[in-house]
Backbone:
DNA sequence: CGCAGAGTTGATACCAGTCAACAAAAGTGG
DNA sequence: CCACTTTTGTTGACTGGTATCAACTCTGCG
């Protein structure tokens, strides 16, 4: 009843009312110009967990942004093995994997029930060509997606299982903080198997890693509920040093 | 003397005369429009091996394309450890790592003496906004760079040392073929240490991997000179199946 | 000729993958 | 609503691949 009405309002609300406005494509765009972008954004009905936004080989028709929920992009190699290329939280663009060839190299899969905005790519390119600020913001969000890919590589190369897991939890926390949610208490939208796949580990190793962090009092784990109890220790394990140790001067 | 004149001619030659034209930014751009792009491209004097195009933290001022030679982009983490994020052959864009934040996350380093075109980013964005075909091609080359990053992840995750090395050699061969050079006989522009770093292995493991491939008659190795003797076997080791082995029926 | 850097090869230790059994949670149908 | 099944996650024992340490060779170069 009341909730249904709210949901409809939510779906109908445009970019100007969206809480992600400053993190998403509209960031830095004037209120006047925003309408042009808003006009081409399709707000779809909720997608169920496991549902796909696009499949391997599909021609690139649109880019997507989650309003809530979470997604994964999965590459399938010739042997049919799956490789999770990225996880996508609200405000992060999905579907850029098709930019190079015009066809998707990955499948975009909802991890949980989610709401998503769909932006037809040809219209986006057309509007962006007329709005330099959108053009610039588009480049920025693409660049941020590249940055996340590089962070992913950084997690994989020459890091122990424990470091990868700590880095993963730290990174996820930061991304939740970025969208205004708690960085120290959250529910993982993905399974242990997904995490293992993403980190290049066996799922048993991920499970053991979580247990170890739990034993050591760094986090509390209960299934997919995570609470970070000792942020500093988690950062240390992840080799992330922030303002805390400001003495290490930078040039 | 004579050589100096030749070099100047080389440097002065525009995109229209460049052998990489169809692989680089100008691809798909009409001869008329090409001049506008050509006007903003700076062709620099050769850079020496080890020289840097940009450093960590530099504001993004330009993107670069090698005309010949080879480059690496190296991320430096807070502990001062280096992580090679990518190798760049002629025609591949360098410097896109700054798109997200406006500042370089990596250093762009020449592996050998090389010639490079420099395209000031603000001018590029300005011209691209007026030329839809350039705009489109810019998106494509950015997308291809993302594709290479994903291939990199694919090399790292859940693959044995032997597979990574085979995949690396295979991929390098394909990239040389793409720019019109031999895919089965080439000189590695990077050291064993660089390869190891890129593949997330110890340099000794890379050396052993090369020796193993040599023993097995798959490649001939002499320092940095590589000759692929058994392409099919190399592909098999890399889990790359092309039209060749159609008998291995797939569901 | 000797030196420094790059690459190769050998011996050893240990981290993480694999196999296996179990436990808990989430669906499913009567 | 409860028994059953299926999925998901945890824990243990064992093994193997790769990092590490170390010695050595080769190459180019001043």
Residues:
């Amino acid at each position: 009843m009341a909730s249904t009405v709210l949901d409809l309002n939510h779906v109908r609300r445009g970019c100007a009312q969206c809480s992600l406005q400053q993190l998403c494509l509209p960031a830095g765009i004037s209120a006047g110009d925003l309408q042009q972008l808003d006009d081409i954004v399709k707000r779809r009905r909720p997608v169920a967990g496991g549902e796909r936004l696009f499949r391997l080989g599909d021609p690139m028709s649109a880019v997507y942004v989650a309003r809530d929920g979470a997604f994964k992009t999965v590459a399938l190699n010739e042997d049919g093995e799956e490789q999770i290329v990225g996880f996508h939280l609200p405000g992060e663009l999905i579907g850029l994997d098709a930019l190079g060839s015009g066809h998707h190299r990955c499948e975009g899969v909802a991890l949980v029930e989610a709401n998503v905005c769909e932006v037809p790519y040809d219209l986006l390119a057309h509007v962006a060509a007329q709005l330099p600020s959108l053009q610039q913001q588009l480049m920025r969000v693409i660049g941020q997606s590249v940055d996340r890919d590089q962070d992913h590589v950084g997690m994989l190369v020459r890091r122990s299982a424990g470091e990868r897991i700590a880095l993963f939890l730290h990174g996820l926390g930061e991304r939740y903080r970025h969208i205004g949610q708690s960085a120290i208490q959250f529910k993982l939208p993905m399974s242990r198997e997904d995490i293992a796949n993403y980190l290049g580990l066996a799922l048993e190793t991920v499970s053991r890693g979580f247990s170890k962090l739990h034993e050591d009092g760094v986090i509390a784990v209960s299934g997919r509920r995570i609470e970070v109890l000792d942020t500093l220790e988690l950062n240390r394990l992840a080799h992330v040093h922030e303002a805390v140790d400001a003495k290490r001067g930078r040039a």
Q: What stands out?
A: The two ends of chain A are 59 Å apart (CA to CA). The domain at 159-250 of chain A is CATH 1.10.10.10 (Arc Repressor Mutant, subunit A). Confidence is low (pLDDT under 50) at residues 1-10, 243-251 of chain A. Chain A has two domains: 2-131, 159-250.
